[in-house]
Amino acid sequence: MNITQKINDAPLVYEVVSKARDIQQSDFDDAVSDPVDSEEVYELIRNINDPEHPLTLEQLHVTNKEHVFVDDSANRVLIEFTPTIPHCSMAALIGLCIRVRLLRSLPERFKVDIKVREGTHQSEEHVNKQLNDKERVAAALENTYLLDVINQCLATAV
């Protein structure tokens, strides 16, 4: 990324304790119904790179399993994330990266909500509104510079 001035020069880095999800033979069988669960969704987002640091969202505790909620029968996913600092100017970009990762990975039937965890950001209402407004998200994704940054954040996400 080409971000020269960092908002949080020294973020806390946490040990990654997540293990990779066990792959079952039925995961490759299209005839077997495979419900989406919170563990699967967490696996999709945990390795997204932070836009400001060469660390993953999991390493920075921006995302964790306890803040991923999936209701497969209702086709709903809710992701709550925690910016590294309360005035993080990258919060909307982080949320957008999460949204794009899920748009590219989950079946279209899912309605995805992305939110800053309550009380963790000084502009959480504003950021949440941006992240969950289809027109704003579509406009953001038309910006080629922004899309390049998002793609860089997603480059190592597995």
Automatic annotation (TrEMBL):
Key word ATP-binding present: no
Keywords: Chromosome partition
Taxonomic superkingdom: Eukaryota
InterPro entries with a match to the protein in the record: FSCA_dom_sf, MIP18, MIP18-like
Cellular component annotations (GO), alphabetically ordered: intracellular protein-containing complex; iron-sulfur cluster assembly complex
Domain MIP18 family-like: 39-116
UniProt KW Transferase keyword: no
GO biological process: chromosome segregation; protein maturation
Family: Belongs to the MIP18 family.
Protein name according to UniProt: MIP18 protein galla-2
Organism for this UniProt entry: Coemansia asiatica
Lineage: Eukaryota, Fungi, Fungi incertae sedis, Zoopagomycota, Kickxellomycotina
Gene name linked to the record: GALLA2
